[in-house]
Write the structure tokens for this entry.
Amino acid sequence: MPATEDTTTTPAAGPAIILVEPQLGENIGMVARAMANFGLVELRLVNPRDGWPSEKARAAASRADHVIDAVKVYDDLASALADLNFVFATTARQRDGFKSVRGPVEAGRVLRARHGMGQRTGILFGRERFGLYNDEVGLADEIVTFPVDPDFSSLNIAQAALLMSYEWMKSGLEDETKTNFSGPDMKPASKEELHGLFAYLEGALEARGYFRPAPKKPKMVDNLRAVLTRAGFAEPELKVLRGIISSLDRFSPAMPRGDGSPGDDPRRLPAAAARARKAEAGRPVPDANGDDNDTPPLGGRGTDND
């Protein structure tokens, strides 16, 4: 007999989740959490090993207290199933008998259809160590199994409950691909904006000698444009790219942003200013390679002193 009598006759918010002889309170709590994630509230336990209630289960439920508080405990499986009209048994092993076997997607749709007809439904899960006995599977109407790797087919009980709870919720969506939130709604960039980026980038690369050898430039430009057109950029994305290219075009590590006028050549201004300061101080002025003009290098590789 159940610890708490259930006198309701209307369908619950979804199928009942029935755990047969669960061993760990933590697993019960994680099942409750998985149920709450997908709108299920009715959890039934058959002879939980460590008794009930369980503080470990409540802690593992991570605030799914409404599921934990509504748990019903039964002495035997037949009592736990008595008021249900249709039950799926979950198993990873092939069983003898004549029961239909479905995958989780189809099972979710079957449960949704029967729920819509006013039937009370349930999903039966076995023990953590070895699942359900054959006679327990025999009390269910059909079998649901998951497409797992046959070499590692054992699922944690909370994982199995999560999968079926997810399929239950998904089966009730008007659009199974719908999400609770979406990305920003951005206007696609116009071809004029995209072609402007092409021209700007091509000019910046041309100034830095990227297109070498010269005869290959047309093909290199084609490849560059193919890469940039594939992504389907939105207007804000093009602005980000253009800002990045502009920054790289106007500044360099030798002259970071804020270190002078952007109109000056960032590759020359710092070195020219240093030479001017040294000249005013009467010190030797290094040439473009950084060497002082009055003293030749000694013993360096590639010099006449080698």
